[in-house]
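Worked example 4.2. Below are the chains of a multi-component assembly; read each line carefully before continuing.
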Amino acid sequence: MKIIVMILLFSGLAFFTGGSIGILRLPDFYSRLHPAGKLDTAGQLLTLSAIAVFVLQDFSLHNFLTATKIVLIVIIVYITSPTATHAIVDAGVRAGLKPWTKEDQS
Amino acid sequence: MKTLAIFIVLLFGGLLIYCTLDFPSWGDPQAPASMHVSPRYIERTMEETSVPNIVTAVLADYRGYDTMFETIVIFSAGVACLFLLRIFKRIEPETQLYRHIPTGITLRIAKGAEPPRESREFERIDLMWVPYDLIIKTSARLIVPFSQIFALYVIAHGHHSPGGGFQGGVILGASIILFAISHNLRSSFTRISEKFAVLLCGLGVFIYAGTGALSIFLGSNYLDYGALSKIFGVDPVTARSHGILMVEIGVGICVMAVMVHLYYNLASAGRHDEGL
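Applying the procedure described above to all two chains together yields the following structure tokens:
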């Protein structure tokens, strides 16, 4: 059980690290939103499910309810985070921001 | 210049960190904060008010006046923003835009011309109108009811678990603002009109102050909820927790209405005509 928690936690952290590096390193607005929307969602899925598994280690009704709440958080972030990213990208396109292309590189 | 700024920042940061060493350590029983009234609150709250959450008991019962005027501060901030931001003079727009829904054609109605009636075929749209986004609309439709239920839970359960009127009211207001963002300002006006929002601001304060006045009429001090036991038909200690709940509901309504009303004013630049 502990090993599963460790694996989930560290893979989640790997996603978070990738997301942070992506936000810092990628060239423009749209490509920066890409790691912010995707990798953070994946990272929180893995880390929070690690916490849920950790809580469920000694099974009781109270712990089960706590794990259920964590799963609900995961579901809510899974709905809202990509939608927020989509809305920001949509607003950027409507405001007339051109995506970065290779010709801009200089 | 830059080195001077860095020097000043480091100096003051260091001073602040140095001063934190003088603070009593966390949870120190000898600290001034836990010497005077705190032990009494911790020991007697349950038997005096039957509220398990001591923070809420202190907020709404022991220091009820404080919270009442806090609510009035929010109310007066809302009213001040109403007078600062709202443009009461009706400015006729240069052109009005209407959209023919079945075909998606936009009609530009010049000033003075008669606009088509709002119907199933024509709807009025803003200058910044965007086509309905299925993704945003659907997920807002998923999120809004759950966040409203959660807000009501936070308000109603504030004296048993962390939460209360302020937090619940903000969540409730945020869910309505989310609805207004994901649809448009005009469709949220059909749910909560401007007048209704301002009325709710006043109603929240009225519920709080009225609960206090009710306890005067029942022969006790202002905001002394123990007197409400005659209405609820319970013993005075349980009546205190019911009184706290009533007060929290008032705070929640006031905060929600002020949030919604501020959003209306900011999003439409005070005109309440076109907006996000």
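Take a moment to check your reading of the output against the notes. Chain A has a mean pLDDT of 88. Residues 61-95 of chain A form the longest helix (35 residues).
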